[in-house]
Amino acid sequence: MRGKRTARRPLLLAAVLPLLLATACGGSAGADGADGRTVTVTVGYQSKTINTVTAGTLLRSLGYFEEELRRLGRADGTAYRVVWQDYATGAPITAQMTAGKIDIGSMGDFPLLLNAARGRQLGEPTRLVSVTGYNLAGGLNTVVVKPGSKLRTLADLKGRKVSTSVGSAADGTLVRALRRAGLDPAKDVRKLNQQPSVGASALSAGSADALSQFVAWPGLLAFQGKAEALYDGAELNLPTFHGVTVREEFAKERAGVLDAFLRAQRRATDRLRAEPVASAESVAKETGLPAEVVYLYNGAHGAATFDPELRPELLAALKEDVPVLEEAGLVSGVDVDAFADPAPLRRAVTAAALPRAGAARSELWPRGASATRSFAEPGALLKALAAAPAGSVRAAYVPDAVTGTPWFADRAVWVSDGSGWRAFVTRAGAGRWAAAHPGARIVPYADAVRAAS
């Protein structure tokens, strides 16, 4: 193991030794206590990529991993210390893992493949051991534009500048979506390889015409009134997910620690499902994101479904991602079956299987409430909004009528078709529906609420 055993030192050195060791070892797992019985475990996570919270932000705030390690420590006589390192994307987590400085990390599907490839290339192989949040249709990635933009479809992006994080799940969505729209991602648009926060600023400043990103950036910008959706990733109908990867050496040498992490992740998943509003509030407090945005993705009927299982549909989708990254020259010869390892999760977690996600429903979050109200039909949500006293609604959510992707009700595009109300994430989606249904018309949100009353 990577670590350092110390002898007795002067008092001053003893006081600063933990900091020196953390720097020298980069936080990697190892025995670094004076008695050689303290093991440091470093976890890389993405606090603002909120469908990783059960392996990151929420897990950290609940203290479940530390609790499981204390239980392990009582059994094996070892003291464990957890170092949490927060990153904006998966790429730096992979860099630290392949340097042996991060033991466990969470990232999106495309970065996971990069993680697998880099690990093999650099002699520090990694394994995919669990999933955090997923969407079977791909609704965790969205392309957005500035409010009032004249751009209405992906075809309108020809010759335009689009910000994304190259090699990310959102970049993969962009590439595939452009191809379906008849555009060449390498020639017909100018991709700007930017961190999500930089891309968001570029969109607001006008130096980017569109932004393709993963959660929670599209929802955050829409909530802030800084963007509107141009393309819903769920239109691809291809699963997207985030997962947990571990250094293979660490998994072998510290199998008990990995088991503790996976048990803690399952407990955090159970907590999020049982208390979605409280969990959203907790994540919001830790990240600085609005709780309303967190709930859009992580709520009871949010865009992300949380389940640690390495589902066959997700692994199949991961295999379909490989050619996209190979074509971009980012990976070669990634063996998904060799990379994915369901054995640790089966060994560590014996709890009953989690229920699958049900049909999408509309939700209303009353201000000051610890739970939301759900509705089977968008029209019922509109009636509830119409009847609600001014200022009494914290947020309202409605699923896209075709893709099922939830969106803020006041940011959705509403259509009245004579038989009821339907909502859409994008203007293009609403336009297609209206064109295919005689008599259907797009109605501004405020007018839809008034009509429902």
Automatic annotation (TrEMBL):
Residues 1-29 form the signal peptide. The keyword Signal applies. Pfam families: NMT1 (PF09084). Residues 98-277 form the SsuA/THI5-like domain. The keyword Lyase does not apply. Keywords: Signal. This is Nitrate ABC transporter, periplasmic protein. It comes from Streptomyces termitum.
